[in-house]
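Trying the structure run again after the queue cleared.
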Amino acid sequence: MAPPPPDQTSTTSDASGGSEAIHSDEPPLKGLPSNVTYSDLIARNKRNSVFLILLMNVLITSFCGALGVILVALGESSAGQDPQAQSQGLQVAPLLGGFVVGAVIGLVIAILATIWSWFSGSNAILRMTGSREIAKPDDPQLFNVVEELSIAAGIPMPKVYLIDDPAMNAFATGRDPEHGVVAITTGLRKMLTRDELAAVIAHEISHIRHFDIRLGMLMATLAGIIIFAADAGTRVAFYSAMFGGGSRGGRGGGGGGNPLAIIIVVVAVIFAILAPLCAMVVRFAMSRQREYLADAGAVELTRYPDGLIGALRKLGGCRQPLRHVGQSTAPLFMVNPLKRKVRTGRHDASTVFSTHPPLTDRIRRIQALK
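Done. Tokens:
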């Protein structure tokens, strides 16, 4: 099950029927360009992790700045200003001040969230999903499979967790291979053959090997903060408009506000709406791509595509949703665990908000690796 020895020379055929020798320290990955190795994939995932974490931090900072602008605008409109101040409309300086204060608060929150997620995110995810760690005597076969595949992947053996749930699913988490965890539901454990079990574990170990677990853990935390802040900001704006927004139309007439200030408020509102959507689209797109690569990695480790195909078909046929799962943890699982997807069997839906690629597409790609 281990990959071929280093410094070997492999030969691939090009479209014209010729062949070219590929000299590499590692074997190429199946299903990916012939010059891509696991080291390339891991390095790319690390770079993507840094870039996307910076992007999510910028989104959080900008979102909180936009929220600060909205709150200042609402505060000015609901305050009991004198007629002369009301006639001047919204002022630019207070709005910019609100943006700066909100952005600073957002940056602090983003940094603290990243640090917390790095050191405690995986434990929080395991608690949220109801996972419990097991020892080898609890399930010797499962431990043997995890041990064999972690040796084949060249990583430390991850901790093994069970989720007491009749649903069928699995996930991996942790900040690096040295702190990796694989978790599988009791429902899936009972339904799989040994070959299918090996394929599922190989898929999750591939996530660990590719450093997907770090990216997924950090992205789940930061995207969750943006969603929470968007919800809080919407509620604040709604209640401010409901209970304090009517005072501006009084004496002195509030017409003819500063055009630049009005533009700033409009842009802030638009960004406050779009920021959570952008965060979710980026996170879900990364989740879909990671699933394809983990499928290819699983086939590379097991050398048996039919095992993964059989496991995915069983997962797609399950109509029992997970009990302890939410929007923030759903992308971590092997297939979408949310109730509306599982009970309707909509595992082939594909939109920008889909957490996983279509199941039939995944199976088709695996079949191409035979």
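The beta strands are 9-13, 19-23, 131-133, 159-163, 170-173, 181-185. Worth checking whether this holds up in the mutant runs.
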